[in-house]
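Archive entry: two folds, one per protein. Generate the first.
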Amino acid sequence: MKLLLNAALIAALGLGAAACTVVTDPSSASSAGGSGSTTFMNRQQQVAEFANVNLDRIKQDMSAGQGEYLASLATLLGVESARQPEFFMFTQAKFTVLFPNDQTTAPEMLTTLNRAMQADPRFGQRLALN
C-alpha cells in the first residue's frame, strides 16, 4: 500500500512539474537560453518606449487630467504617488504646450514635459529624464 501511495505521489509530482511554463517578458532584452548577455533599459529608455507605444492614450489622459496611462507615465517619471494628482492637473494645464499640434511626437512631448517639470518646483527635483 505504501509503495502504491509513493508511486501515485511521484506520478502527481511529475505531472505537476511537466505543467510548469517559463514565461518571459517580450519587452525585455533577455531570453532564456540566450547568449548570456542581458541588456536592460534605463529609466529614460523605459519612459521613451512607453510614450512611443502609448502616445494617443497618454494624450487622451492628459486632456482629461486623469487616467491609467498618465498614472503609469507619472510612475515611470518618478512622480511620487502622493503628488500624482498634482501631476495630472499640471499636464492638463500644459496640454496645449505639450501637444501644440496633431503631429507632435512622443520625443517632442517628453522634451517639452521635461522642461516644464524642471521649471516647476513641485517636480523639478525628481525627474527621470535629466
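Generate the second and append.
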Amino acid sequence: MLRFMPKDVLRLLVLLIMMASVGAAAAKAHLITFGKWASVPWLPGGEAQKPLMLKVRGLFLDGRLKEYTVGPFHEVTDRLFVVRRAFRMNDNLPDDPAFSPRWQWQRGGWLVVDRLTGHISPIPMPEFDAYYSAAGWYRDYAAYCGVSEDGKQLYAVVAQLGRRKPVLKKLLGSNSIEADDSAPPDSACPAPLWQRTPARVTFEPSAAAKQTFAIRGHVVDLVNETEEDEEPSK
C-alpha cells in the first residue's frame, strides 16, 4: 500500500525507518568481561631461575577471548579503563620440533579498553620495562620508573593517555640491579605513589633519593623538601 501514499509521507516514513536503524546500531553495546584467575609459571629471568607464579585472566569482548591480563584494572573514565597485558611467548629454538611449542608466560605493557566501541589498543609508555617498571595510575596519568635502552639508567616518567611524549622524564640515577640476574621483578623501583589536591607523585627507587613532582596538566614541578613535609589534602 506504500505506493498509494503521498510522496511527502512516504519520504518521511523512509527517513524515520533509516533513523531508527542507525539508532539501533549505535545503541548496540559491547560486553566486556574478565575470566577467572589462573596461576601460571613465570620465568622472568630465564630457566636458570626458580619459576614465579603469575596470576592471569582472560579479557573477553562479546564472549570472545581478546587478551590475557595481569593485575587489577584502573578506571580512567566511565568509558575507558586500562589493564596490563600478559601473553605467551614461544621459546622454541630453530632445531626444536615446530609442532610442540614451548610456551612461556610474560608480562607486557598496558592496554586501554573502550567500553563503547570495544576497541582494545596498546598504550605508548616511553622507557617502560616489562621487568623493572611498575606503574601507578591516577586519572589518565601513569607514573613509573623507566629504564634506558642499555638498562643502566632509571628515569622518573609520567605518561598521559593520548600523548606519545611523556609529561615527565627525569633521570633518577643508575639501575644498580641491572646486572643482578637474581633480582626480583620491580625491585629497582616500586610503583610511584600519588596524592591529590594538588596532584603529586613520589618516586622511591631503591638506589636513589626519593623525589616528588607536582603535576598540573602538562606542567611538572619538582617539589622541594619543605613543600613535601607539608601534609597534602587527601
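Annotation attached to the second fold: The chain is about 10% helix and 40% strand. The CA atoms of residues 24 and 166 lie 40 Å apart.
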